[in-house]
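Worked example 3 (structure in, sequence out).
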């Protein structure tokens, strides 16, 4: 199994079309966000991870997502946030997982969501925390 895509989104919806075929509607895809207030603060971005299971594989997997400041390895402890979720997908098909992290942000800058299935390779998804805009 492997990750096809991982994106931060405002909204995620699925719908059936002819076939039967499924469409995934992703809106508000982003890689940066303004902090809700000056740091320190808490942010909760939504990450959607799309996973494909080739035919002939078991279909049982574990998605691991570890949030770390840029430059910090995914296995460094303690992580900023972490999510581990088992899943089952029919071989030859796709599945998705929604991950909502509670990030205690101490400084502005980049955070990396390190994602992997099982013990596979890490995929790095950047998320940049921006300073609030003065009005």
């Amino acid at each position: 199994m492997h990750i096809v895509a991982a994106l931060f989104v405002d909204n995620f919806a699925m719908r059936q079309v002819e076939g039967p075929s499924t469409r995934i509607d992703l809106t508000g895809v982003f890689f940066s966000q303004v902090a809700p207030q000056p740091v320190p603060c808490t942010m909760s971005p939504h990450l959607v991870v799309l996973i494909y299971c080739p035919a002939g594989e078991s279909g049982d997997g574990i998605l691991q997502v570890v949030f770390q400041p840029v430059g910090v390895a995914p296995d460094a402890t303690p992580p900023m946030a972490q999510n581990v979720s088992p899943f089952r997908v029919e071989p030859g098909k796709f599945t998705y997982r929604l991950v909502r992290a509670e990030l205690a942000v101490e400084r502005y800058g980049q955070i990396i969501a390190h994602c992997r299935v099982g013990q596979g390779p890490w995929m790095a998804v950047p998320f940049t925390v921006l300073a609030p805009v003065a009005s």
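Notes: Residues 2-130 form a domain with the Immunoglobulin-like fold (CATH 2.60.40.2550). The radius of gyration is 16 Å.
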